Records
---
Amino acid sequence: MSGSVLERWRAGLAVGELRLPRCGGCGRLVAHPRPRCPWCTSAEQTDEILSGIGTVYSFTVIRRAQGAFAGTEPYAVGYVRLSEGPMLLARLDALDLADLAVDVSVLVTPDPEGRLTFRLVDPSSDVPTSSPPARNPRS
Ligand SMILES: [Zn+2]
């Protein structure tokens, strides 16, 4: 594999893929990407493309924001547990706040700029049931 783990993560995002390294020592996915496994310290890794299917584990709604985020509220920030195990902490921009709940199924996909987008999915079919809304130009 060429490039650092973060370069490979970003290269995956640029082509619409969630890629994480899988440890050659213990077999766990290494999230967030880093050069050594945090459980067994092995540097042996192979990249794996993840499904993007996950569930909302926890979230909070930001109703008063400051600095660069002022004017973009309300928005949600939360953890999504991917079906492969790792959790992502992200701004859940593409989800309608009225639809957001713990345990709802989502599909995580990178947009062309490498930002993660989240859409609700029907858990029985993994088919998105919502489309991403227009992105706030300030986010
Ligand atoms: Zn390991």
---
Amino acid sequence: MPNPSTTDSMHTLASDQEIVRQYLDRVNPPEQLSEAERRQLESQIRELMQARNARLVAHYYTDSLLQDLADDSGGFVGDSLEMARFGRDCDADILMVAGVRFMGESAKILSPGKKVLMPTLEATCSLDIACPIDRFAAFCDEHPDRTVVVYANTSAAVKARSDWVVTSSIALDVVDHLMERGEKIIWAPDKHLGAYIKKTTGADMLLWDAACIVHEEFKVRGIKDMLKLYPEAAVLAHPESPDAVLEVADMIGSTSQIINAARSLPNRDFIVATDQGIFHKLQQLAPGKQFIIAPTAGNDATCRSCANCPWMGMNSLQALYSSLLDETNEITVDAVIARQAMVPLQRMLDFAVENKLQIHGKA
Ligand code: SF4
């Protein structure tokens, strides 16, 4: 169970970390392309997308080549929920989802009539891995008096077991709303985001114990050292970062909120605690400003991410082309699970509309 104070849970955490390590060991970074190879692949992908009425939706953390291709070909670049909503609302027959697996699943849940393909089905997420449905369902069953709120970074089956699905930008509002109704909460899977929400709202929350391997590596000491070099810089942090990092942040928010802050704040320099993939959009949308990646543990044994999600990095032009050519790597979601998962997802969408909230999410 996720409570780290018990011996059993220590075993569970150790085995979760081992499973994450095993996934990471299978990650092969894509080969570098020459300029001519890149151009040829891009043109082949464009032709295929046109012939098959396919659109590319890419996450902010994917390679800049994929982001540019999505932007230039009538597709979309954004966070996971924006991607899924764009997919739902566009008239394509095929959605190419460049991101990690739960994003493909969310796209399929919101667009059951479309074929959803991914460059690779191996791209996953440490939060998803560490929240398997069997253990999670058992944990929920032990606390039937609690409302189950899960983050978007979960499998379709975990979403189906929940009462609410939330993204990082709407989580505080939803938890506030539940607290006003006197509800006690189970939160999963990200412990840092959960702790941040619990601290901010004061809600009664039981936290699942999982973390994002990218955000967990940001170090407050390094950020403080960096601030000595850039004293005028604003620190922008994603709430999946550890509490000590959030303590020194000038702004805490989802990927889209970080981009908005970089555009609207008067600072010229920004220290950014989230995946480096976002720098491509930051530089496009806030030209003339300087973005510095928040320091991580460095390239030592403890850091497998160093502000670059290895799974997001598996999305490449080559893999995208192969998947589209043969229409492989299709995402399927069991129809019953999809129907059940749609209920908490729709609850969040309706809540956002009723409360005139923007919904942005992360990975
Ligand atoms: S950046 Fe973190 S939360 Fe996002 S997909 Fe990678 S491991 Fe998961």
---
Amino acid sequence: MTTPEDLENAVDIVDLVQRYIKLKKAGTNYKAVCPFPGHNEKTPSFMVSPAKQLAYCFGCHKWGGALKFIMDVENCEFRESMEILGGITGLKIWNVNPEKVKQAKNLYHIYKDAKTYYKSALQKYPEVKKYLIDRGISDEIIDKFDFGYADSWVELYNYLKKSGFDDKMINDSAIFVNVWAKKDKFINRIIFPIQNARWDYVAFTWRIIWKWEPKYLNSPATSIYDKSAILYWLFKARNSITKKDFVIVTEWQMDTISLHQHWFTNAVAISWTALTDKHIKTLKRLTHKIYLCFDGDKAWEKATKLSIENLKNKDLEIKIIVMPENWDPDDYIKSGWDFQELIEKAVSPIWFLIEKADFNINSIDDKKKFLTEILQTLKSYNSIVEKDFYLKEIAKKLDLREDTVYEAFNRTRLKREDNFVENNVKKVEYNSEDYAIWYIINDESVLVELREKIIFRDFISLDLANFLAEWWTIIEKMELQKKERFKALAMKIEENSLSQTNDVVWNTIEKLVKKINLDSYKKAIKILKEKMNSWDMDAFAEYTKVVKSAREMGLK
Ligand SMILES: [Zn+2]
């Protein structure tokens, strides 16, 4: 198994940090403005030491080696930072299939090369470039966003072959209809490359110029392109999102490109889907304010509603930027309208849901259903003034008396929330076995360690024993109340471990193992002695075994 140290040894911290921000040489060190979310500064207090292989911010006091840097900059858990560094260094880590890693690397490479080909092809077609310029896209943006043009059936194929890719790899990329036809799917179309959150090229969107249908198309899903997870331009928008502390999500690339061209640099795009849980998880690490900015048409009203549903109860501040009917953000900005004003006028989800409610006013059932749903949403609002305002709006919308709506709301409120009991349990105490379970949940590679080193399996808690045996099925089956208990514990540990380096984390695990072994040893001795006193013959053999192992482990 690759250890955290192996991973850190395989990368130079200066190269790693440079993937995220530009560094300036300062003596033997490098400096830059702090890249970590939540720290907004103008003069650089972030330093990288190549000699010590450390990154340190004098402003927010976050520091550590490569893995800790990734945890801080991506705002992710230790396990994920190992995966990320595994991807960068090509070292295989727990649970990662080396074949898959290799295949992904090949695909990134193909997409990058294809991007280069398309980009240079665009230069050969002034009429295509003019088409873009006429649409208000500047030369600088064409270059920055890697706009390209697919001009030929076989040139790209030959280009990729020359770069050393075989037919199988080219076929896997799904750029071609099939590799034997050598037919580029995107021919005669403008190309926008899509990158993942670490700036690997993973897919293309293309747009027709001459009048064929469909107008826009996306690459199909491949092993490196999952629409429900990718946020376009996230890698470049990351800093701006954390500094401005909100993100604008648009429905496709062109809207985001337009926003960036007009200095709204905290925009990212999804690809014609609703915002999924994966998107939300990624964004939540950077900011808690999400502004949805979709087209002003019916299809997008639906997508917005679905996104609002997915965003519910995620402890986020959501705003909807309402586009005038049949406008998209790209048109809007290019027509010279003030987008900043739209941002300032952004509405709350509940306003949007009331305004765009879609029900039959003559159907009592429809009305009842809408009322129940909307009141459930309203329940989570804290401000009395807001509640009052929306209750009146709901009454108007449903053509009901205000009293009726208020009464319905009060009834909704009185219903006990399912999680209420769990959320208000008395202060709980955790023991070392609980902590061990938490570490397993948080980072699978710990499991390997613990499986090897925890010895008296029959004398540890049933929960931990189960986890060591088959943790993934256990988590699925775990009762809600227990899950809540571990969630609370996770929060507690995270609070304390913010300033911890990986060494400290692994040291903690080592100490935990020692403590668990010692505790379970004492427990074993006590239980076995009782059994021996009542002449349980098996206990004698067991006792000898336990004492022997304890001596070997240096526990006695
Ligand atoms: Zn900082």
